[in-house]
Design goal:
Blueprint lengths: L1 H19 L4 H4 L2 H14 L7 H5 L3 H24 L4 H23 L13 H22 L6
């Protein structure tokens, strides 16, 4: 329900906050709930001792490749309408995305303790659920950006 409600109510509330106060409040409004969530987590979540061996198994190269792939994809998609999809800048960013995503997937699939277990996509039902969730997200984002119409 929240996934459907947020794209509808979010722009309305965000617009009201921006018009009534300032765009800065779109960020500042989350400070108080963040502090409450942090204090609540400290008080009520079970405390466990850190396991030093777990930190040593973090694959920093995979994490770096994932971060670069996502960042370059985001920047490439943002700049493409202004720079042009065939511009060397956008194509370079998309090439970096493809190279890092390929390296991440290859390294992750070969790892015994991956940061993201891509093997779960081998389960057909899980894969279909992920695809449908992605399509729903695209549709909701498109509806939010076009005034509520999916076409």
């Amino acid at each position: 329900m929240l996934a459907v409600l947020a794209p509808t109510v979010g722009p309305i509330v965000g617009g009201w906050i921006t018009e009534a106060f300032s765009w800065h409040w779109l960020f500042l409004i989350n400070v108080a709930p963040g502090i409450v969530a942090g204090i609540t987590a400290l008080l009520f979540l079970p405390k466990e001792r850190p396991i030093p061996a777990v930190g040593g198994t973090l694959d920093l190269l995979s994490l770096t490749m994932l971060a670069i792939a996502l960042a370059s994809l985001q920047i490439g998609l943002k700049e493409a309408p202004d720079q042009g999809w065939a511009s060397s800048y956008v194509l370079g960013l998309l090439a970096v995305t493809a190279a890092c995503a390929y390296g991440f997937a290859r390294r992750t699939l070969a790892s015994r303790k991956p940061i993201v277990d891509l093997r779960t996509l081998g389960d057909r039902q899980f894969l279909v659920g992920c695809i449908l969730s992605f399509v729903l997200g695209v549709g909701l984002n498109r509806a939010g950006n076009s005034g509520g119409c999916l076409v």
